[in-house]
Amino acid sequence: MLGEALPLPCFYDMAKFMKFLDEAVLTVERGAGGAGCVSFRRERSIEYGGPDGGNGGNGGAVIVRCVGNLNTLIDYRYRQLLRAKTGGHGMGRNRSGAAGADVVLTVPPGTEIIDEDSGIVLRDMVRVGDEMVLLPGGRGGRGNASYKTSTNQAPRQFTPGEPAKQLKIRLRLKLLADVGLLGLPNAGKSTFVAAVSRAKPKVADYPFTTLQPALGLVRRGDGEFLLADLPGLIEGAAQGVGLGHAFLKHVSRCAAVLHMVDAVQDEPWAAYKVIRGELKAYDKQFGSKLCKLPEVVALSRADLVDADALAAKVKEFKKKAKLPAKAVVVVLSAKHGQGVEEVVGALLELVQGRRGASDGVSE
Ligand SMILES: Nc1nc2c(ncn2[C@@H]2O[C@H](COP(=O)(O)OP(=O)(O)OP(=O)(O)O)[C@@H](O)[C@H]2O)c(=O)[nH]1
Ligand SMILES: [Mg+2]
């Protein structure tokens, strides 16, 4: 089967699979300002103590901040109302109310903030560190002490704080995969995706189980990245053999590549070179730089090889595979968990390094 061109029709619209729109609609509310206070100083043996009602505190603002360690809007999918806190009321003895706490929405780069009612784009959060005050907090009211004048020594005036205000917004994010998973068919790519994310790709012991790319979201601590499970590549893919290499176009936008090589075969290094050859052919044809993307190389299905043979294979692999300078090689068994966290950690580091280096524009 390998090497044969599969008679597949134009089987998928890659853009549809590799680029997703992630959206969330939510209501945000600024905090109301605290009311001003009416109070007079009353103390024994102090007559006409005068007004001492303090001002109300400002309510909390609604702020949107663009941060680098997120890649989805999943946090807002189920939170429909976010409220900033109300400012404290003013009090006697000239005490002002406390300011209400702000509510800060953190979003990944590439998120548009749209006014849901008018459809107007309020802001496109492009760079990490971009910040926008969506709704300033309600101003606190004035206490009666602030109305004291030479002609009015005992004012009873005060103002209430500005009321809370709501705004319905839509967050819209264009998603691109951060890591592309490359390798010959049956290398265990989908098994790995299933092990590290909640995606459930089809896994089976025959080549070309995966016919369409699918995404899995990998989360570790407060970092996350999108992993694209891709169909297997084979020798001649550049000429359209197998499923061809149309999907490689989208890999060129990834921050890193996870290259999976089945450790069970006799010469894993040769398999690795086959894929590298295909990447080179692709780069030549389309002027891309897939070969230059940072790589993590996983020698997969390691549990099926006995320890001595595995050690010998790893040694030979490092010697003969002509790895790119910074490639990380990890021995992996997605089924038994060996090396899984190491691979995820290495990929997260590459992705975060890239997000930090770029100006964060997702497209
Ligand atoms: N023992 C063992 N088997 C594994 C491991 N990873 C994958 N397999 C098996 O290898 C076979 C192929 O796995 P897949 O995850 O479908 O491989 P793939 O690279 O996605 O294959 P294609 O989609 O066809 O390109 C399946 O039978 C898996 O159960 C592993 O770590 N250990
Ligand atoms: Mg697969």
Describe the structure.
The longest helix has 19 residues, at about 270-285. With about 375 residues, the protein is an alpha/beta fold. The strands form three sheets. It has a six-stranded mixed β-sheet with strand order 10-11-9-12-13-14, with helices on both faces. It has two domains: about 20-175, Spo0b-associated Gtp-binding Protein, Chain: A (Distorted Sandwich), CATH 2.70.210.12; about 175-355, Rossmann fold, CATH 3.40.50. About 20% of the residues lie in helices and about 25% in strands. Residues about 1-20 and about 360-363 have low confidence and may be disordered. Guanosine-5'-triphosphate binds next to helix 2.
Characteristic key phrases:
363 residues, alpha/beta, Spo0b-associated Gtp-binding Protein, Chain: A, Rossmann fold, 6-stranded mixed sheet, 5-stranded mixed sheet, 6 helices, disordered N terminus, binds guanosine-5'-triphosphate
The low-confidence parts are 1-19, 359-363
Count of extended strands: 14
Helix content: 10-25%
CATH class of the largest domain: Alpha Beta
Main beta sheet strand tally, sense and closure? 6 strands, mixed
Biggest sheet: strands side by side, in what order?
10-11-9-12-13-14
H/E element string? HEEEEEEEEEHEEHEHEHEH
CATH architecture of the largest domain: 3-Layer(aba) Sandwich
> What is bound: which ligands?
guanosine-5'-triphosphate, magnesium ion
Give the number of helices.
Answer: 6
How many domains?
A: 2
End-to-end distance, in Å? 38 Å
Mean pLDDT, nearest integer? 86
Identify the CATH homologous superfamily of the largest domain: P-loop containing nucleotide triphosphate hydrolases
The percent range for strand residues is 15-25%
The shape, in one word, is: elongated
**Rg over C-alpha atoms, rounded to the nearest angstrom:** 30 Å
